[in-house]
Amino acid sequence: MYRFLLTPRWLGAAVLTIVASVIMVMLGNWQLRRYEERSAINNRIDAADSTQAVPLTSILTPPVGAGTAGASPGKSLAWTKVTVTGQYDATHEIQARGRTVNSDVGFEIVTPLVLADGTAVLVDRGWVPAPASGASAAPTVPAAPTGEITVVGQLHLSESRPAPIEHRDGRLDTRRIAVPRLAHEMPYPVYGAYVLLTEQTPAADPAFTGIPIDHEDAWQNGGYAVQWWLFSLMALIAYGVQVRKEAQGSSAPAPEKKPTLRDRVAEADKKRESARLAALHEPVDRVEEADRKAAARLAARNGQD
Fold first, then answer.
1. Using CA atoms, how far apart are residues 108 and 88, in angstroms rounded to an integer?
2. What is the pTM of this model?
3. What digits encode the pLDDT tens for the residues 190-216?
4. Fewer CB within 10 A of the end CB, N or C, for the chain?
């Protein structure tokens, strides 16, 4: 009944279905990993107010070589709450322009914090609005405090798509906080991620607005994972349905032929012709034939009398 499954056509369809199903399962698993990764990031964002900050130097790889950036910590450590102590280097301060907070365009001010071992980490001290004269004009920025500073904040990965760096208003000016590119402008090694400041000792200037942290859309990846798994199941079900239809079609009895109407006159003619031809081929009994002829003559003679 199912021997047709061994034909090249059905073997090819089976292989194609299995390969497609496996690929869709793998895509679903990848989306599941993205969901778990993004969920972990969201958990770290939400837990920042209640968890204890860990020393930055305990989780990041130390950078080596002046003007270079250390290794990126990766997404597994994004938004981890950290603490670090050092001195601000205002001479290499960075203004990231075109940054939006609450629909207002302004600048994020990033200042290197130099640690006791000579390495540095970039600290995003907060957002300031653009002046009334225009978004390209020099912003009013509170001076970085001097002396030993302790910063508490969340670890921010380097931004992608690096933008050109210019010198403007006594600062480095850019659109993207790309740590490896900014590190080339520094006279010391720089850690591979920067810190989004939430607390500072001494206290940060109130002129700064805190940078809001957007949550990752983890549920979207979760939905995609379920979707790919359903597609995989549907492919197998569709193959099974086609196999069932083929099996039922091959085992069904052949339809009976319906009788057709015939021309009665033509049928009668056909029968008479068949009888005539049969008579011509039948062997003749000579005695019987002689008796028949004699009887015919006798009948004719009696008729004449």
1. 16
2. 0.67
3. 999 999 999 999 998 999 998 888 777
4. C
